[in-house]
Task: inverse folding
């Protein structure tokens, strides 16, 4: 597995260092393009049906797990999952997996921390860590096309973002298609302006411990056959393997072998 001997160093960088790492070449440029093309194709369909979430020149496409094999490959990428498990523990789940399209002239989205922190009151606690975000670069992120901005080390402050401080310290993260930015949910970040004439696409994974209520409703657009054919890893991410048809409450991990 790529980067396997660097996991402790990468964990340290995310938790105690700048708050994020960029891992290159996790998938091929062709796979990245497949994901990008599919996002744009689905977006144009969902624009017609009204399912697409539109915020001026920005759009969000949810429920990706059920919308393409390439998305199911990305969400359970072994290198990404090993790194996140080393931070959140083995019992992590998926809070959401969506695409973010920045059309030409899209403005910055606004500096933020990630869910669940944005749903909580600041100051936050540092431990346990409640979220790790993955931003998949399904195309090259450049200085001009809306690459994200991150404030290095801001996760250690465990507070909601301070705009002035963010403007002084943030750095734009560019990279090649097929890379992923893996970041601490408390690290302040934003998108930059897309000043090109081409839409920029990212795919966003939100991973949390299993006791956090998922951001996305994984039953929206649910397809039974996708779950039936899913790997054990994906079933766990969707909390499917922890559901019982007999018990009235969701089983926790220790009980799941008895179900
Ligand atoms: O699309 C991006 O580059 C990042 C978006 C983001 O950070 C978010 O939605 O939390």
Result:
């Amino acid at each position: 597995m790529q980067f396997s001997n660097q996991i402790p160093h990468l964990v340290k960088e995310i938790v105690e260092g700048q708050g994020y790492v960029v891992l290159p070449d996790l998938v091929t440029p062709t796979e990245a393009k497949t994901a990008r093309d599919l996002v744009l194709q689905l977006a144009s369909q969902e624009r017609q049906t009204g399912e697409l979430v539109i915020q001026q020149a920005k759009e969000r496409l949810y429920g990706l797990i059920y919308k393409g094999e390439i998305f199911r490959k990305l969400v359970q990428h072994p290198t990404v999952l090993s790194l996140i498990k080393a931070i959140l523990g083995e019992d992590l789940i998926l809070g959401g997996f969506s695409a973010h399209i920045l059309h030409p002239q899209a403005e910055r989205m606004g500096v933020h921390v990630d869910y669940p922190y944005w749903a909580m009151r600041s100051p936050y606690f540092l431990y346990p860590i409640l979220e790790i975000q993955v931003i998949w670069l399904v195309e090259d992120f450049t200085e001009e096309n809306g690459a994200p901005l991150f404030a290095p080390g801001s996760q250690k402050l465990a507070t909601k973002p301070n705009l002035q401080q963010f403007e002084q310290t943030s750095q734009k993260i560019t990279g090649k298609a097929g890379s992923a930015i893996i970041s601490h949910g408390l690290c302040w970040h934003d998108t930059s302006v897309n000043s090109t004439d081409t839409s920029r696409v990212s795919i966003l994974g939100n991973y949390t411990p299993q006791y956090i209520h998922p951001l996305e409703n994984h039953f929206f657009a649910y397809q039974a056959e996708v779950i039936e054919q899913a790997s054990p890893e994906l079933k766990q991410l969707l909390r499917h393997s922890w559901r019982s048809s007999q018990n009235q409450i969701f089983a926790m991990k220790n009980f799941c072998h008895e179900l």
Q: What stands out?
A: DSSP finds seven helices and ten strands in the chain. The pocket of 2-oxoglutaric acid is lined by residues 100, 114, 135, 148, 189, 191, 202, 204 (CB under 6 Å). The first strand starts at residue 20 and ends at 23. Residues 12 and 115 are 21 Å apart (CA to CA).
